Amino acid sequence: MNELIMKTQHNIKEIMKHPEIYNRVRTLLKDKVRVDRQSLSSTANFYDDYGMARWELNLLLINVEDHFNIQLKHGLEDDLHTINQLVAVIHKEKQKETEAAA
Description:
The chain is mainly α.
């Protein structure tokens, strides 16, 4: 098989899907920030609905970087309000990583 085709097929397998990222973020919220997993909603606000302090969101972002092996931009906590937004950022970073490896 052509090497380029094989590499492309491998990279497609490596790109994480939104549901997988979402479930991992929910687990991090439950385990690292102690948010009740049953109350987690993809559209709930980190500050208003979960009562998270800025330092707790920063702690979550540090855990996200470690867990997903990505580097998030500084000041991201100012722009992030929901799990869906965080999942989108992680997905974008993982896509960039996969494309860079191609």
